[in-house]
Specification:
The protein has about 200 residues and is an all-alpha fold. Helix content is about 85%, strand content about 0%. The chain has one domain. It is built from seven helices and no strands. It is elongated.
Length: about 200
C-alpha cells in the first residue's frame, strides 16, 4: 500500500512548484481584479451576489447537481486527455490559472461587498470543495505534464517507454481525481447551500 501511495504521489517537484506558482499568480490576479473593475462592473458584481444570496438554495437540486458535475468533469477529463499531447501543456496551465483566478475573484467580491461578513460568506461558499478542486487539478495536472514529457522524451530521444505501466498509473490517478471531484460536487450541491443559508440567518 505504501509503495502504491509513493508511486501515486511521485511527481516532479519542479513541475509541482511551477504549477503552484501559476495557481498563486492566478489567486493574486483574481484578488486584484476587483479593484480595477469599472463602477458599472462593480455594481453588476454586487447585484449578482445579492441575487445569489437571496436564492441560496437551488430550486431543483437534480439540475444543479447535473450542471455542476458536467462543468467539473469536463475540466478533469480535459486535463487528463491533454496529458497525451505537447500542445496541451499551455491549456493545462491556463486551466489551473483560470480556476485559481475565479476562486480568488469570488472571495474578494464577497469581501468587497460585505466586508467582514463577506469573508465568512466567502469561506463557507468555497470551503472545502473549491480548495479540493484546485488541489485535484494541481495533482492531475502534474501527472498530465509528466506523461506528456515522457512521451516527448520517448519520441525525441528514442527512449524505451513502458507505456502500459505509465497508462495504468495515469488511469489510476484519473480515477482518484474523478471520484474526489464527484464527492466534492455532491458536497457543493447539497451541503454548501444549507451551510450558507444557516450563516446568512445567523448574520
Amino acid at each position: 500500500m505504501k509503495k502504491l501511495l509513493d508511486k501515486l504521489f511521485a511527481v516532479d517537484k519542479k513541475v509541482v512548484i511551477f504549477l503552484f506558482f501559476v495557481s498563486f499568480i492566478g489567486m493574486i490576479t483574481g484578488a486584484l481584479f476587483m479593484t480595477v473593475l469599472s463602477s458599472a462592473d462593480k455594481e453588476l458584481v454586487s447585484e449578482t451576489l445579492a441575487s445569489f444570496l437571496k436564492n441560496v438554495e437551488p430550486a431543483n437540486y437534480a439540475i444543479f447537481l447535473r450542471e455542476n458535475l458536467v462543468i467539473n468533469l469536463l475540466f478533469i477529463i480535459a486535463i487528463w486527455i491533454l496529458g497525451f499531447s505537447v500542445i496541451g501543456l499551455p491549456v493545462i496551465i491556463f486551466i489551473l490559472f483560470y480556476k485559481s483566478f475565479t476562486v480568488s475573484f469570488s472571495i474578494s467580491s464577497f469581501i468587497a461587498n460585505y466586508g467582514l461578513k463577506g469573508s465568512l460568506l466567502g469561506f463557507v461558499y468555497h470551503f472545502p470543495h473549491q480548495i479540493i478542486y484546485l488541489l485535484i487539478y494541481l495533482y492531475l495536472g502534474c501527472y498530465a505534464i509528466k506523461v506528456s514529457l515522457l512521451l516527448v522524451q520517448s519520441i525525441i530521444k528514442r527512449k524505451s517507454l513502458d507505456f502500459k505501466l505509465v497508462m495504468n498509473r495515469y488511469l489510476l490517478v484519473f480515477i482518484i481525481s474523478l471520484v474526489t471531484i464527484v464527492v466534492m460536487t455532491c458536497f457543493e450541491t447539497f451541503i454548501t447551500p444549507i451551510l450558507l443559508k444557516n450563516v446568512l440567518n445567523m448574520l
